Amino acid sequence: MATTRIQPLPRLRPVQQTLVQPGSRLTGLALIMPALVLFYAALMPSEFRLVIADQTFYPPRLASILVLPAIIWRLAAREVRLTIWDGFVFFASLWMMVSFMVVYGPESGLLRGAALGYDVAMPYLIGRLSFRDATDLRRFLVYAAPGLFVAGGTLLLEVIAGQPLVRPAAAAIFGPLPFYENGVAVGSRGIVMEARLGILRATGPFSHPILAGVFLASFLPLYFASSLRKWPGYSGVIASIFGIFSVSSTAILAFLIGLALLFVDWFQRIIEFLSWKIFIAVIGTAVLAVQLASQNGIVPIITRYTFNSQSARYRRFIWEFGSESVANHPWFGIGFKAYARPDWMNSPSVDNHWLLLAIRFGVIPSYSLFIVTLAGIVLLSIAAAKKPELDRRMFVGLAISLFTVGLLGFSVALFSGLQAWFYMMMAIAISLGTNKMIQARRVTLPAHRSLREKMPLTFKGERRAP
């Protein structure tokens, strides 16, 4: 009987292949470069500006124009999947332009409103297209740490010198910033020189001590939660602490909120029955009880513990009369015009970001952007529960920072570099909270081609090993 020789099966050897989902072509520094350009521009004094055709281009606006070609290319390549929350932001930006066209006429309103809408949409787009996961955010924090440390260190130097240093030097080169009244420059704006607790309220490269303090304090939860070690983590935390030298109640409150929420996150991880849901319910109930039980509500109680209770009371009057202006002009606002108020309220400034948006542009941009802020926090919270511990902490840190700045927007107007950072931070939250991409990972695949081709797809672009 003839025997049939059985051919041996092809030898299978495991090979390592890195599988990346299509659409995410850029990685590493190249991916986050637009965000870094905008971030370092946000650290520059506003005196570094260009004026072209009656339009002032401050550093964040100049930076966003510089990276605009890269942003357009990424949009064309569909490197991000847009969501309904992006639509809210773009609609708010468009409404700003439309509202100014209604208030100032088509030609003048288009130029003014488009520039202001651009200052919202571009930082947001840069954030959306520069971050995909917690690793991208950590890499950003590493490259941002030197600039943040230098900016924060200038506050310490100004306190030691007893006088502003950075902005006067910038004004000597580019000229002082103009003071605007009803949207028209009527003089030069001075630099805040005020002492509290026996030291100068330092400004550094920022437009106001409050902005300096809030900007720096917003990075404390990020660096604490980033798990970065050695110089990036240490310098980031130290730079954030330098914000205390702004001697601002709002900045101190930002530190306290950030640290308190970080402690709550740590505490609820070691106490089994505690959770964020329980914490939020308890705090909400306590605030409601104080609001109902106290004679004038919780706001007067808070103002007792600020450095300047008179300033805090003044903010209450801004809210009262500013809200009347919104009620009288709910849809398109009043533009740069001063809102109606008593004669003794001589300052036209509005120390409330959300109220200022409503006064200037109507309620649509204010509500839309506030909703996206809340959405970013909620989406981060949901996504964090599904992440490994290190990434979960990074998500929580970002949610705390976004919550802190969004909340303090009720007591300070966000403009200049802080505004750009806030909208970029909002976009990062939406990106990380909605990103469904499965990160590239190493899997073991058989070397034989025929077997690899028969394996089922787990998601587009990846094959699963049996």
What would you say this structure looks like, in words?
The chain is mainly α. It is 61% helix and 8% strand. It contains 19 helices and 10 strands. It has helices at 28-42, 59-66, 68-76, 84-104, 106-130, 134-161, 166-174, 209-217, 220-225, 230-241, 249-270, 276-293, 298-303, 309-328, 353-361, 363-384, 389-408, 416-434, 449-454, and strands at 14-19, 50-52, 55-57, 178-181, 184-188, 195-196, 199-200, 441-446, 457-459, 462-463. The strands form 5 sheets. Strands 1-8 form a two-stranded antiparallel sheet. Strands 2-3 form a two-stranded antiparallel ribbon. A two-stranded antiparallel sheet has the order 4-5. The longest helix is centred in the N-terminal third of the chain and has 28 residues, at 134-161. The chain is globular, with a radius of gyration of 25 Å. The protein starts with 13 loop residues before the first strand and ends with a strand. Residues 9-24 and 437-466 have low confidence and may be disordered.
